[in-house]
Specification:
Blueprint (H helix, E strand, L loop, with lengths): L1 H10 L5 H21 L2 E8 L10 E6 L5 E6 L5 E7 L4 E7 L3 E2 L3 E5 L3 E3 L4 E2 L1 E11 L10 E5 L8 E5 L5 E8 L1 E8 L6 E7 L2 E7 L11 E8 L4 H6 L1 E8 L2 E4 L2 H4 E3 L5 E7 L2 E8 L5 E2 L6 E6 L4 E8 L5 E9 L9 E6 L8 E2 L5 E6 L6 E6 L5 E3 L7 E2 L4 E19 L10 E6 L16 E6 L5 E7 L8 E7 L2 E6 L9 E4 L4 E8 L10 E6 L6 H4 L2 E4 L5 E7 L2 E9 L3 E11 L4 E2 L4 E2 L3
Parallel strand pairs: 1-8, 1-9, 10-16, 17-25, 26-33, 33-39, 40-46, 40-47
Antiparallel strand pairs: 1-4, 2-3, 2-5, 5-7, 6-10, 10-13, 11-12, 11-14, 14-15, 17-21, 18-19, 18-20, 18-22, 22-24, 23-25, 26-29, 27-28, 27-30, 30-32, 31-33, 33-36, 34-35, 34-37, 37-38, 40-43, 41-42, 41-44, 44-45
Helix pairs in contact: 1-2
Length: 596
């Protein structure tokens, strides 16, 4: 097509210059489109704790672990976003920002041609925490780093700021409810405190320097061996996290994010006694603990210096070779293979030759794990057995991979006005042992495949052929405003499925204190009483109250439930049981009065 337009340019040399310029622009757009096809895209949806979409939220996609900004996007009126022109096969981290909300970064994994997030990005309601940081004498501590996070939960939203020259700080987007506040400045011991943010909270933080000048405060000394040049050393990043009540919590970036010095060492001081986790990543080389894992868990005692050593692989130290065949033994030529590393190393993709052979070089440590996948062919996948982690035990790794045809199911999700519903989560669930509808209670249980509807409500689900037949599956679509469930008995392969959302069952209410003020940020746990004997495995569904103390949960099955209002996911403040839910009913006005 571009050649034909070039010929047209010859015919209209001077007489139609605007048309020629237009044709040049068209050709440039066509070339640009070709470049887009060689990249990846990522889509998803951003919602609040009630499942309502958050429009005009800014979405940032960064490269991990390099931390480079790859692209930005913005949600539409339904909270749906698409970010395009991303580097294929790179590892990505997603950060979302919106006024009045806060969230934790989300790891998107290896970027594919048209990827979608299997779960909504949930943002917590935000409040404000202000105050001042001083030392033991009352003198202001300038430029201290103050970090706030929502602890003890699945969504550990976090934010941080730096105090000014007079020690004053304001966190405009701190999570409502329970907050773990950590403050640190060089020359002082880490301060850790828990508080309840109700919208506008003030704190006076006193940092201690006790033990820093005499016996030495608790320190962590990290050494990485095996680095051969400055280029490799400069790419190594260390991230330190602290365990609080068995939950790994991020530390203030000034303390918890480190780099190596010229001697391949790093020393972190001012730590509180306790258990920590050090995570070491590099986009160029593999760095692992002695046991071969990506991170090292260690205990730091009071006044002690804890030392830990990581080993780096020799660059280009492992040769990965092998064969890729189909289930019938036929060599698969021209297929692009990708490898994911347990240490986050970026491994160059490789294409199989005419005999199905492949060979590439990677910087891997002994004991590291790899997961092979087909990078571009959506209808083929590595079989289950080959997808298991493979331990590297030498300078060469020889793989024999088998690819199988994926079964594909296409369809569309429609709202109640029969319009395409973007962002709806669609999942295939195995029907056996009577748990066919358990996806609503536990989104990970019995799932065969999951995806999200695109901007037009269309979806594609792929799974391994032979692992499950259509007659053994149920398809479910879920959206904050409704849901749809359909058995696939009688649906032929290649036949499109149309799912029409209907109002779903649910509960809603408000949580207030004794004075009648709303309590935002507390957790509400809803458990199906029929599943209570498996509560330790299933755990029910947990939601969080918004700034006005309201909570809501949709997509519940018919049945009786217990509702618990909890702190830290453990301490039950109030409980109500049983709460009966009927078909097509949303129980509202289930309110609680608590004293957090």
């Amino acid at each position: 097509m571009i050649v034909a337009h070039t010929h047209s340019l010859r015919e209209c040399r001077v007489s139609s210059l605007p048309a020629a310029l237009a044709l040049i622009a068209f050709a440039s757009a066509a070339l640009a489109q070709g470049a887009i096809d060689a990249t990846a895209s990522l889509s998803g949806r951003v919602v609040d704790v009630l499942g309502e979409p958050i429009p005009a939220a800014n979405v940032y996609v960064d490269s991990s672990p390099a931390g480079l900004r790859l692209a930005t996007g913005k949600t539409d009126g339904s909270g749906f976003f698409i970010v395009a022109r991303l580097p294929r096969d790179d590892f990505a981290r997603i950060t979302v920002r919106a006024p009045g909300f806060v969230s934790e970064p989300t790891w998107a994994g290896r970027l594919q041609a048209h990827g979608s997030l299997a779960s909504d990005l949930v943002m917590l309601p935000a409040g404000k925490i202000g105050g001042v940081v001083v030392d033991a004498t009352g003198k202001a501590v300038a430029f201290a780093c103050v970090h706030a996070s929502a602890p003890f939960g699945r969504n550990r939203a976090q934010t941080e700021t730096t105090a000014d020259a007079e020690g004053r700080f304001v966190l405009e987007d701190a999570p409502l409810g329970e907050v773990l506040l950590m403050t640190w400045q060089r020359g002082f011991v880490l301060d850790e405190r828990r508080l309840f943010c109700r919208g506008d909270t003030g704190e006076r933080i006193v940092l201690s320097d006790q033990g820093l000048s005499n016996q030495g405060a608790s320190k962590l000394a990290v050494t990485v061996t095996g680095l051969v040049d400055e280029a490799d050393r400069s790419t190594v990043r260390l991230r330190l996290e602290r365990f609080v009540d068995n939950w790994s919590q991020p530390l203030p970036s000034a303390l918890g994010h480190c780099s190596l010095d010229g001697n391949s060492k790093c020393t972190v001081e001012g730590l509180l006694p306790g258990k920590y986790q050090m995570i070491v990543v590099s986009p160029r080389i593999s760095v692992g603990a002695s046991a071969g894992s990506r991170d090292a868990q260690l205990t730091v005692g009071r006044g002690q210096v804890q030392e830990v050593t990581f080993a780096a692989a020799v660059p280009g130290g492992v040769k990965i070779t092998g064969m890729l065949r189909g289930q019938d033994g036929t060599a698969l030529a021209g297929k692009e293979l990708a490898f994911s590393s347990s240490n986050g190393v970026r491994i160059q993709g490789v294409r199989t030759d005419a005999q199905g052979s492949f060979s590439t070089i990677a910087s891997l440590t002994e004991g590291e794990k790899l997961w092979p996948s087909l990078a571009q062919d959506g209808r083929l996948a590595i079989t289950d057995a080959s997808m298991e982690a493979i331990a590297v035990r030498g300078a060469q790794l020889d793989l024999h991979l088998v690819a199988c045809e994926c079964t594909e199911l296409r369809g569309r999700v429609l709202d109640q006005q029969l319009r395409g519903q973007p962002g709806a989560r669609v999942a295939l669930t195995a029907i056996y042992q009577g748990y066919g509808n358990s996806i609503i209670i536990s989104p990970e249980r019995n799932e065969v495949a999951a995806s999200r509807a695109d901007a037009n409500g269309q979806f594609v689900l792929r799974w391994y052929q032979g692992s499950a037949k259509l007659s053994d599956l149920r398809i479910e679509a879920m959206d904050p405003r409704g849901g749809a469930v359909q058995d696939l008995t009688g649906v032929g392969e290649g036949e499109a499925v149309e799912l029409r959302l209907r109002p779903s069952n649910g509960v809603a209410g408000c949580v207030r204190d004794a004075a009648g003020k709303p309590v935002g940020g507390v957790r509400v746990l809803i458990t199906n009483l029929a599943e209570d004997n498996r509560a330790s495995q299933r755990g029910g569904v947990e939601v969080c109250t918004d700034r006005l103390g309201f909570y809501r949960l949709a997509s519940l099955r018919e049945g009786e439930y217990r509702i618990d209002v909890t702190l830290r996911g453990q301490t039950v403040l109030k409980s109500l049981s049983p709460v009966a839910i009927k078909a097509g009913e949303c129980r509202t006005g289930i309110d609680f009065v608590v004293d957090p």
